[in-house]
Q: What sequence folds into this?
DNA sequence: TTAATATCACGCAGAATGAGGGATATAGAA
DNA sequence: TTCTATATCCCTCATTCTGCGTGATATTAA
């Protein structure tokens, strides 16, 4: 079994060093390179192609979110792990959206760090249950929707790019009824086109 | 501090009983009612309005996914916890999408059960890192997209319901260029309308 | 030096859109 | 009981949008 190649992007020297020590002390991982900022790491990422990149979110210059985005773009197979002090912030969530596979808090101990890396390696996603909740909340629907059930049905089809005609066919109603629902949706959401309706619906998790 | 009201929907009598014992033994939760199937529980849910509903996924009659959907519809504040034997199945994932806030595996011990309920109570989402990964994968973009970056930009706007004209305006290109990109997208995705493109894009996480 | 990307152009027939004006029936709330 | 919300259906109008066909050019990456 080969050891997994890891890079560390972290501006605090002490942390960089202690992470390196911990990881190199394990028999499953080794640190290929450490960087105090993201720019240099990203420049080399196509060559280094590490298995895992540990990325601090608070970096000088390019921030960690953008760094993760670019790493995933240039080396999609590299798993990114967020390293952060803020355990339950929106930043972590943004990082996950940008492509990170999990996160480690900065004051994690030896065991926690290695276990997080192991989980990432075998396809898991280490994260606290608070973050997990934020994540799943993202595809829960808003129970306080102003729309009626039927209007919600229609809106879903609008969001799929369906035309009036297609909506009427799929819901077994006349085209006029579909248009009527859509007009009511526009009034309720205070918009006046399909695209605006979709943006608003997504923003408010109406669908 | 009031104890949180819990209902249990579980067809296996022994499990129902042991969950009840464990929960009633805690000082934070109490079991209001247990049900061997979802139908009865849902009929009463508007009246019982429990803080937490523990829902088995494999139920006779209505399955757990549908049960969760209906519970969240009729009593949105009730937190649903999936109870399952299959730790890492797609079913759990579907349950989370339907509105569950986390899950408990059936052979969890006393401590694990109480801890999961506590996490749910304080807004967390108990789940294994494998499930967490499935969940976050859902808003990661597919790195093997056949589309070029520009085409992806265009597709995103299509998915927002934007017209050719609007797309051209937002991307500062001519309408003809937008149409050109869209035509190329259709060829690559093997579709021939915006709505088909959107479905395919969502299915394959292209956007 | 090909292939892919990104940009731009024109014409056409038919469909879709948003805005305006209506109607009817049911069910539930005030 | 009257009002409101919901869900269904109908018509017209001017404008825009769509998909298809058939091109072109410049840059860049393999």
A:
């Amino acid at each position: 079994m080969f050891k997994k190649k890891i890079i560390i992007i972290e501006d605090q020297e002490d942390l960089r060093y202690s992470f390196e020590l911990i990881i190199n002390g394990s028999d499953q991982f080794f640190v290929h390179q450490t960087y105090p900022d993201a720019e240099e790491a990203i420049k080399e990422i196509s060559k280094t192609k590490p298995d895992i990149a540990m990325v601090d979110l608070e970096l000088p210059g390019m921030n960690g979110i953008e760094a993760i985005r670019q790493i995933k773009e240039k080396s999609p197979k590299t798993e990114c792990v967020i390293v952060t002090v803020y355990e339950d912030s929106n930043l972590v969530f943004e990082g996950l959206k940008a492509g990170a596979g999990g996160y480690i808090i900065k004051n994690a101990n030896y065991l926690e760090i290695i276990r997080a890396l192991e989980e990432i390696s075998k396809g898991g996603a280490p994260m606290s249950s608070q973050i997990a909740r934020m994540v799943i909340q993202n595809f829960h629907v808003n129970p306080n929707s102003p729309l009626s059930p039927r209007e919600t049905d229609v809106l879903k089809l609008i969001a799929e790019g369906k035309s009036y005609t297609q909506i009427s066919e799929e819901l077994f109603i006349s085209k006029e009824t579909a248009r009527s629902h859509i007009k009511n949706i526009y009034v309720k959401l205070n918009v006046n086109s399909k695209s605006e309706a979709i943006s608003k619906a997504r923003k408010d998790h109406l669908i």
Observations:
- The interface with chain B takes residues 72-73, 76, 96-97, 99, 101-102, 119, 123-130, 132-133, 135-136, 138-141, 143-144, 158-163, 166, 193-199 of chain A (CB under 8 Å).
- The mean pLDDT of chain A is 87.
- The CA atoms of residues 59 and 199 of chain A lie 32 Å apart.
- The two ends of chain A are 46 Å apart (CA to CA).
